[in-house]
Amino acid sequence: MNDYKVVKALNNNVLIALDDNQQEVVLIGKGIGFNKSKDSIIPENTVEKLFVLRNEKAQEHYKSLIPDLDENTLNTIISSIEIIRRRTRTILSEKVHVALTDHILFATTRLLNGMAIKNPFLTETKALYPFEYEVAAEVVEFINHSMQIDLPEGEIGFIALHVHSAITDKAVSDVNRYSKLIIQLIEMIEVQLRVTIDREGMEYARLLRHLRYTIERVLNDEIVQEPEKIASLLKSEYPTCYNLSWKIIKIMQQTLKKPVYEAEAVYLTMHLQRLITK
């Protein structure tokens, strides 16, 4: 069990402390800094809802955000991360504290200055990450109630990406990049097949998710077995969709800088053919 020795209280919710290895950490928790003086000992098991920030760069960035946060905003953000932890039942990547604090501070400041940001990928985020979106909706509802503000629906989409980042330990910038790649591929499919896919329809959601899981398999180096007989059948029966599948796979390979297995072309061809048939 780790005990933490207080170096300095930044405010009621954030402490600088030393762990058992004399490494500096940032402890984040509601009311954790209240009446704590230098050299106070904080046993880990007595602190409910404790977050520990160990990464040095993340610590410095987090400390730089603290002066811009009033007590209620910081409390709200800490509780929001607790909602994410409770709902996802995972140990969250510590990056989420910095990224989400940064994002919520930015979003609320812009809102109060009448400059709310539009989210152009809201439909896609909702379809790509349905569970994360559901958790983010709860977080936004909580923030609105706690801070008596009215964050727009687009914020649910932005926060959903942070939730996904926190539970998969991927950088938000990467999550964003893969989402944009998927949207680029869908636009290419529409042009090549001369179809317009209904953005609210089930087929769109299915295609988005198929592309998402293809990208995840590629990133995780998962080998997909190729059903050879089906491959040759699809190649002769549906040459347009099969060739388009290969174009998509080439773009994936260039963007992700990883090989994509041939079997992915087979499964993608089936999806594209279903689109044309519909």
TrEMBL record:
Domain PRD residue range list: 68-173, 174-278
GO biological process: one example: regulation of DNA-templated transcription
Keywords, ordered alphabetically: Repeat
Pfam families: CAT_RBD, PRD
GO MF, one example: RNA binding
PANTHER family per UniProt: CRYPTIC BETA-GLUCOSIDE BGL OPERON ANTITERMINATOR, PROTEIN GLCT
Entry protein name: RNA-binding antitermination protein GlcT
Organism: Oceanobacillus picturae
